[in-house]
Amino acid sequence: GDTTQFAEYIQKNIQLYKMRNSYELSPSAAANFTRRNLADYLRSRTPYMVNLLLAGYDTATETPELYCMDYLAAMIKAPYAAHGYGGFFTTTIMDRHYKPDMTKDQAYALMVECVREVHKRLIINLPNFSVIVIDKDGVKNMDPITPAIVAKTAEA
Predict the structure, then answer these.
(1) First-to-last C-alpha distance (Å) of the chain
(2) Structure pTM?
(3) How many CB atoms sit inside 10 A of residue 131's CB?
(4) Per-residue pLDDT reduced to its tens digit, 54-86
């Protein structure tokens, strides 16, 4: 409920900003706008209880950016992030294996390792994971990580 409603609210307001000012917000500006709105609602009678990851590609600096925000509107820019119960297991894998110059295939393999760990340690059955790439060419879906892909990479 809160996640969908808050995401739609932010999306529409960022779109409104683009129409009024004839240019898009950078990922950093969008993250700060989101954080400010989340902080304002936190102090109201109807706070949003959302944790979120916000990613984008800054065309000015030609770099990807990722921001992690919690329900208290604390925000940090990070090279990688995970949240929820699975984040407790996967953050250590990313700490060990993440490299800033990874290829898409290497990053996908790292995500498969993270999903393998979630399947092994988390009681809840989450079979499929979407993988989305955000780069200078836009937003693209990669192949989802399924139990079959996890099993195939375990054999290799």
Answers:
(1) 41
(2) 0.88
(3) 16
(4) 999 999 999 999 999 999 999 999 999 999 899
The closest of 128, 130, 125, 120 to 146, measured between CA atoms, is 128
Exposure of 135 in the CB half-sphere (CA atoms within 13 A): 8
What would you measure as the largest C-alpha separation in the chain, in angstroms? 54
Helix (H) or strand (E) holding 104: helix 104-121
pLDDT tens digits for 22-36?
Answer: 999 999 999 999 999
Angle between helix axes 2-21 and 27-42 (nearest 10 degrees) is 130
Distances (CA, A) of 48 to 23, 36, 66: 28, 12, 21
Q: Residues with Cβ < 8 Å from 114, sequence gap 6 or more?
A: 82, 86, 89, 90, 93, 94
Torsion angles phi and psi, residue 126, rounded to 5: -115, 95
Residue at 52: amino acid letter = L
C-alpha–C-alpha distance, residues 144 and 32, integer Å: 30
